[in-house]
Amino acid sequence: MDKAYKNGTGERCFMHEVPGMYEYNGLLMLGQFPACHLDQIQELPLSEEDVIISGYPRSGTVWVQEVLWLLYHNADTDLARSIPLLKRFPALEHQFLPGNPAGIVNSLESARTTPPPHLMKTRLPAPFFRMQVENGNTKAIVILRNPKDVLVSQFNFYRMNRGYKFDKSWEYFFDMFRAKHLFWGDWFDHVLSWWNLKDLTNVHIVFYEDMKHNLRAEIAKMAAFTGRHVTEEQLDKITEHCQFESMRDNPATNFSVARYIYDFSKAPFMRSGTVGGWKDYFTQEQSDFIDQMCQERLHPYGLHFRFEL
User: Fold this and answer.
1) Beta bridge partners of 6
2) Beta bridge partners of 207
3) Superfamily of domain 22-301
4) Inter-residue contact 216 to 235 (CB < 8 Å)
5) What is the pLDDT of residues 165-190, one digit of tens each?
6) Where are the domains of the chain?
7) Per-residue DSSP letters for the chain?
8) pLDDT in tens, 53-84
């Protein structure tokens, strides 16, 4: 992480700061994700029946969550619409306490006290799951999205997340990315940590752009990976339910239940979902910078992204 920004006391200082933020193994984290909770995640006993969904923030984890939940619940779209996704499929790193407004369960506690299979979401990089995935047999579905669209989505998420208290420009936000001052760490480090595990039989990589191109085919691949039998009719039903436009208008998946967290007057939680929306934000220099970084950091490992369809 760039150390160019310091204050007069010599302590680390960042381009955007909120109360309670801290660093954990090089990741810039918010106080709502306490270090003790992150410690516990790395020691959480999981089985081969359990599935972790991972993705850098704004890469499409919510999309994959809804698909996976339906694969494990007989494509029951009526039930899915009746219960917010936040309650059905919480994130591992969240430490939700009793009495939280949305009634979200503590996923760590649930994983410890209920029988498998457990479906869990995380935005953490692969080293946090070395015991369960790299050296174990817990399944991981990793969603990857091109960095230009991720950054645009991140920018709008920073604006609408009440806890982030962010009111700066796109240009300022992009400079935060260059300086590695974004929450959850550097995007390149994150995606490479999971991409390096792609040859493990318990890791499945899915690209956001492929889901946009042929959602039904990607759902079928996830079903095969997790060993879930679905009929052609169920596959069609899940595909229709999980179209981006349907999820954006669905109160169970558009996070309208979390208005205490998000200011929807700034941006919706699920905005456009397009591939190539970055063109409305990026300057040529910014686009060239990302292209160069991808060539230097990703291409040697065989990782390539589509920036438009």
Assistant:
1) 12
2) 144
3) P-loop containing nucleotide triphosphate hydrolases (3.40.50.300)
4) yes
5) 888 999 999 999 999 999 999 999 99
6) 22-301
7) -----B-TTS-B--SS--TT-EEETTEEE-TTS-HHHHHHHHT----TT-EEEE-STTSSHHHHHHHHHHHTTTT-HHHHHHS-HHHHS-BTT--PPTT-TT----HHHHHHHSPSP-EEEE-S-GGGGIIIIISS--EEEEEE--HHHHHHHHHHHHHHBTTT-----HHHHHHHHHTT-STT--HHHHHHHHHTTTTSTTEEEEEHHHHHH-HHHHHHHHHHHHT----HHHHHHHHHHTSHHHHHT-TTTS-GGGTTTB-TTT--SS----SSGGGGT--HHHHHHHHHHHHHHTGGGT----S--
8) 999 999 999 899 999 999 999 999 999 988 88
- In this structure, what token pair is assigned to residue 14? 């960042």
**Residue with tokens 């974004």, as numbered in its chain:** 182
